[in-house]
Amino acid sequence: MRQRKNVDVSSTNNNIKNNLKIPKTPKNNKFTHPLLNNNVFYLCLFFRFINAFFVQTYFNPDEHWQALEVAHHISFGFVSFSQFLKYGHLTWEWEKGIRSYLHPVIFAALYKVLAFLNLDKPWFMIRTPRLLQSVFSAIGDLYLFKLSQEIFGDSVAKFALFAQLTNWFMFFCITRTLSNSLETVLTVVSLYYWPCIRPSASKISRGSRKWGLAIAALACAVRPTSAITWIYIGLLELYLTRDKLKFVLLEVIPIGTLILGLTFLVDGWMYGTWVLVPLNFLKFNFLSSGGDYYGTHVWHWYFSQGFTVMVFTFLPFSLAGIFKSKQWKLSGLIAWCLGIYSLLGHKEFRFVLPVLPIALMFAGYWLATIGGPDKSNGQGKRSPSTHDSCSAKLQLAILFLAVSNIPMAIYMSMVHQRGTEDVINYLSVEAYNGKVKSVLFLTPCHATPYYSTLHRNLPMRFLDCTPSDEKGALDESDRFLADPAGFATEFAKNWSIPSHIVLFDYQEKLLKDFLALHNFGEIKRFFHAHFKVDREHQASVAVYTRKGFDDD
Predict the structure, then answer these.
(1) Same domain, 322 and 456
(2) Which range of residues forms the domain containing residue 69?
(3) Please, what's the b/e burial string for 270-290 (b: 16 or more CB within 10 A of its CB; e: otherwise)?
(4) Model pLDDT for residues 175-202, shown as the tens digit of each residue
(5) pLDDT digit string, tens, across residues 434-456
(6) 20 to 30 A from 353, CA-CA: which of 19, 21, 521, 550?
(7) Does the pLDDT of residue 378 top 50, yes or no?
């Protein structure tokens, strides 16, 4: 009788544990088999390739001006370590040494391969950078699946991957060539290797934390603000680890020094002088609030607008998953990053992209619980009616998330603000066919891609917006927007008249007389947006050409 009683208690305890959390699948389950991880990666890679082709809109200038423009400058304007041709453009950040070449060098290598294969044609120049980023993105998707599997089990991993692939903002942003996109991938990959993030019973290889440290250091080298994430994780690991001195002296310092040293060498090589980019970045963005030049938001913007818009309809599922799972270390990381970034005046959606996959993983957790064990049944099984009810709820939740996110992803990726991409794509084909001699962009600065898309060494000019040391001074872009006709008239006194002018419809209406006076006529117009974003409504982008310029 005593032996039988012990068996019943053990069974009851197991049922209680199963009812408290989603059961994990044993490690020898098919879901943890290497072949499945390969299949997941191929699925993600195929999906991200399609994703990359869908993305045809303009989101943030840094996608082009801080990555592809720099890469193009390296690949096609490079003469020596300290000398460049004037084929291409580097923004003021590169003059001040607050950007690392580590990220652009990746795409510079891609451009070199295209040039070697004689494939540096408009189609390839436009699309291959995002296709390369889609490879990195697929790696991030795979590691989110693996991280979810390690922490929560197989069921959650599948739903976390569903959330990652269907979330509108992830679809909209992750295949873009922003440094934030690569930072996000590196963040997810690194988190997988940190012992402090895994369950205490999880087995981990001895060198895993070193891999996590190296990838985290690389993320900081690509984007110094990534240190916000790794300060939290590092302190958490320091608190939980037994060998604190070993962690700091034999891992953090050597690995951090190695990655920082390699970055220092790359930047010194490319700048032609020794530059400590993280220090310059810190001085400009944190100590002098230089980023505020590009606009500020209220302190709660990430909580009330920014991050909530990114998570979108997954938000209630994410919050429910956080409280249901009680994984406070990971949810604390989200709160930490949002809180620290909220202290900065200048805020952007992309700054907090690295913690979006974590929020989506919690949404996957909640979705998995809908089909989990029945808490009202002592055997841990569902009655048929309960199972049908949960299945219906799960299907309804998935349908709701898909219907709310997929149209949003397609609209933002293919429709909203696509004119500035279309116009430079059109000009690149025209230039390739010898039909463009020079271009003037009478638009807000950095409103379009530039030489990295045009890929022709032609004279081009845009309105400068370099921050001024004089407080309150208006740059060229601001002066033009304040008085388009007056600025253009004054500007034309000293210009080398271009063959083509690009401008938005709003300024076009105010420059009709100016364009007619200088013998310019419209040749092409591209739809841009249905509603305004941060300025007046920019519905379309027009291309004007000077009549008879071919005869010059």
Answers:
(1) no
(2) 24-370+391-414
(3) bbeeebebbebbbebbeeeeb
(4) 999 999 999 999 999 999 999 998 876 7
(5) 999 999 999 999 999 999 999 99
(6) 21
(7) no
What's residue 372's pLDDT?
A: 61
- Find tokens 């379009």 and name the residue: 448
Question: Which has the minimum average pLDDT: 162-166, 380-384, 464-468?
Answer: 380-384
**Closest residue by Cα to residue 465 from 494, 485, 444, 439:** 444
- Percent over 90 (pLDDT), the chain: 72
| Residues 345, 277 share a domain | yes
- Cβ atoms 373, 18 nearer than 8 A: yes
What's at 512, amino acid-wise?
Answer: K
User: Are 113 and 201 contained in the same domain?
Assistant: yes
Structure tokens at 300: 């709660």
- How far apart CA 344 and CA 41 sit, in angstroms, is 36
* pTM listed for this prediction: 0.89
Count of the separate structural domains present in the chain = 2
Q: Judge if 80 and 183 occupy the same domain.
A: yes
396 in the same domain as 440: no
In a domain, 377, yes or no: no
Residue 296's pLDDT is 80
Residue 304 banded pLDDT, cuts 50, 70, 90: very high
For 155, residues 6+ apart whose C-beta sits below 8 A from its C-beta are 22, 25, 368, 371, 372
Run of H or E including 520: strand 520-527
pLDDT at 533: 84
Q: How confident is the model at residue 292 (pLDDT cuts 50, 70, 90)?
A: low
CA contacts within 13 A on the Cβ side of 409: 27
Q: Is residue 497 situated within a structural domain?
A: yes
Q: What CA–CA distances, in Å, run from 420 to 81, 149, 424? A: 33, 41, 7
Q: Is residue 140 part of a domain?
A: yes
Closest CA to 124 of 115, 135, 137: 115
Calpha distance 517→527 (Å, rounded): 26
Residue 331 in any domain: the answer is: yes
Alpha helices in 415-518, H assignment, sequence order: 419-432, 451-454, 476-482, 484-491, 505-510, 512-517
| Spatial separation of the C-alpha atoms in residues 60 and 57, rounded to whole Å | 10
Determine if residue 151 is left, alpha or beta; phi over 0 gives left, psi from -120 to 50 gives alpha, anything else beta: alpha
**Same domain, residue pair 397 and 249:** yes
CATH number at residue 471: 3.40.50
Does residue 351 contact residue 305 with C-beta atoms inside 8 Å?
A: no
For residue 22, how many C-alpha atoms fall within 13 Å in the half-sphere facing its CB?
28
What would the 3-class secondary structure string for 278-312 be? Answer: HHHHHHHHHHCCHHHHHCCCCCCHHHHHHHHHHHH
The full DSSP string for 382-424 is --HHHHHHHHHHHHHHHHHHHHHHHHHHHHHHHTTT-HHHHHH
Beta carbons of 186 and 218 less than 8 angstroms apart: yes
3-state SS assignment for residue 522: strand
